[in-house]
Amino acid sequence: MPQSDMTILGLGAMGSAITERLRETGLTTTVWNRTTAKTEPHVKAGSTAATTITEAADASDIVIAVLLDHASVHQNLEPAAERLRGKTLVNLTTTTPNEARTTAAWATEHGIDYLDGAIMATPDMIGKPESLFLYSGSENAFTLAGPALEPLGTTRFEGTDPGVAALKDMALLSSMYLMLSGYLQAAAMMRTVGVSATDTAEAVGDWLGAIMGHLPGFGAIIDSGAYHPAQGQDVNFTRPAVASLIAASREQGIKADFLETGKKLLDELAATGRGDSDWVSIVESLTIR
User: Fold this and answer.
1) CA distance to 96, 124, 238, 265, per residue, from 286 (Å)
2) Tens digits of per-residue pLDDT, 49-58?
3) In what order do the strands lie in the sheet with 6-9?
4) CA pair distance 133, 135, nearest whole angstrom
5) Per-residue pLDDT, 289
6) pTM of the model
7) First vs last C-alpha separation in the chain
């Protein structure tokens, strides 16, 4: 099999988008997928198909994995461990931080230079500046693979702890889902009086756009740990405000589960004598002790 600049393992929507973008930049690519039919469009476009993982590993010094999950990474790569020895493995499969660290330890054990990556993008965003790729792990692997990976989107190296990229990915996604949950709460409330979810989306976008400017200030309070006296709204002010939101939801026949979780944490702060502390001190209640 001819040598390629890159091998890509996994040709789902994301793996295919990455492969297409790498070809556009002029790189030669070898592809492998469990379902071989998915390799055909890429072969027609100029990639070389490997029939086995070991063939795929042999084809390039840089191997990118874009597989289903942590289990599939090990299921597919462990049989090819010796063929990957001395090569750079970039794992773009979505995993938890500890799963990333486990794979990094396995790679080190087998002499594989390992870089863990997290993709903050959808497949249609690949190659655009708003596509963000986070990497952590081997600095040497990032130095070797980084230039070829840059055309995929904005690239950031988060440090040598292989779990940090996955952690930041999960943290940002958590904020996204919680923010979108807030929009769903608003949409559910407003449609009870005939306002479309589309119109509510516009209103929520405008409001959140305005409020996002306060985030750095909240961050400064959290980093300082100076919650008392409150620099902004305190717990005692915020509790009845959230209670009103819950009441308004229920009046419209809408559940308030998302809001009730926050209210419970605020109640716990007040019950332990921290009612006059800044409401953002709720962040301390999120640590499992």
Assistant:
1) 18, 35, 17, 9
2) 999 999 999 9
3) 48-49, 29-32, 6-9, 62-65, 88-91, 113-120, 132-137, 154-157
4) 7
5) 82
6) 0.92
7) 54
